[in-house]
Amino acid sequence: MNRWKPARGTKGNLALGLCAFAVLFVLACSQQASNPPATDDGSQVASNEQPPASEPAPAPQQSEPPQQAQPVPQPAPATPPASRPQPSAPPVPKTVAVTVPESTPLNIKLEDNLNSGVNHEGDTFRATLVQAVIVGDRVVLPEGSTIEGTLTSVVPAKKGIKESGGAMTLSFDRITTPSGNSAGMAASFAQQAKSTAKKAGTIGGSAAGGALLGKVLGGSTKDAAIGAVVGGAIGTGVAAGTKGSELKLEAGTPLTITLEQPVTLKMKR
User: Fold this and answer.
1) Residue 184 lies in a domain
2) Domain membership flag for residue 4
3) Each residue's pLDDT tens digit, 115-173
4) Please, what is the end-to-end C-alpha distance for the chain in angstroms?
5) 236 shares a domain with 259
6) Are residue 236 and residue 250 in the same domain, yes or no?
7) Has residue 64 been placed in a domain?
8) Domain membership flag for residue 260
9) Could you tell me if 163 and 258 lie in one domain?
């Protein structure tokens, strides 16, 4: 059986036709790309129009961390008993005690008038220290310190044959420095006024005067004796009416007293 074989001229024409079809197809595609189709309103879309931006990709969801197992609560350890605080060192005192020894003399002056004929036992008075008292290198009792006192005995003056002057006993009980530091103290002062000293002279003078007067008037020794007795009686009466002097201590009177006991004051360091 004889198969059909195309002729040589026919094969060449077929190849030429395929090449021409390929050229026409490429031209048609390039013309279509250079001339885009018109829009609905008749305007053409620019060839360089950017494509719409793409929406950002959603963020990846973070996975939740795995839950950790809750620890089992443990019982709280027993609290040990609180230890007792150690005693701290005692604070240093801010003051120091200074003592004025017994028998120390104090020079003072009275601030009040005292009179044995006016004042009474129990009356109070004041005095002022006029000279500072120093112990070691400290002025313990400065000048101007105030002293308080009490009259412990008051004896008014007496008249008569046994006349006597008035007397007083002063007791000093407390001293206070100008800064307000105060302490008790013990000291005293006693004094009696002088008597008139006219008793013997008054009686003797009256007797002698009476004797002389009796002798002159009577002219005999007997009259002189009688005059002496009468004169002595008169002198005795005069002496019985005589009164002793009152003891008067005026304000500003200087005195010196002696401590009968030590005086201790607290002073700053």
Assistant:
1) yes
2) no
3) 999 999 999 999 999 999 999 999 999 999 999 999 999 999 998 766 789 999 999 99
4) 154
5) no
6) no
7) no
8) yes
9) yes
Q: Does one domain contain both 174 and 101?
A: yes
Condensed to tens digits (0 to 9), the pLDDT of residues 30-81 reads 665 555 554 444 444 444 555 555 555 555 565 565 666 666 677 766 676 6
DSSP for the chain, please give it: -PPP---HHHHHHHHHHHHHHHHHHHHHHHHHHHSPPP-TTSPPPPTTPPPPPPPPPPPPPPPPPPPPPPPPPPPPPPPPPPPPPPPPPPPPPSEEEEEEPTT-EEEEEESS-EETTT--TT-EEEEEE-S-EEETTEEEE-TT-EEEEEEEEEE--BBSTT-B--EEEEEEEEEE-TTS-EEEEEEEEEEEPPP---HHHHHHHHHHHHHHHHHHHH-SHHHHHHHHHHHHHHHHHHHHT-BPPPPEE-TT-EEEEE-SS-EEEEEE-
Tally the domains of the chain: 2
pTM attached to this predicted model: 0.52
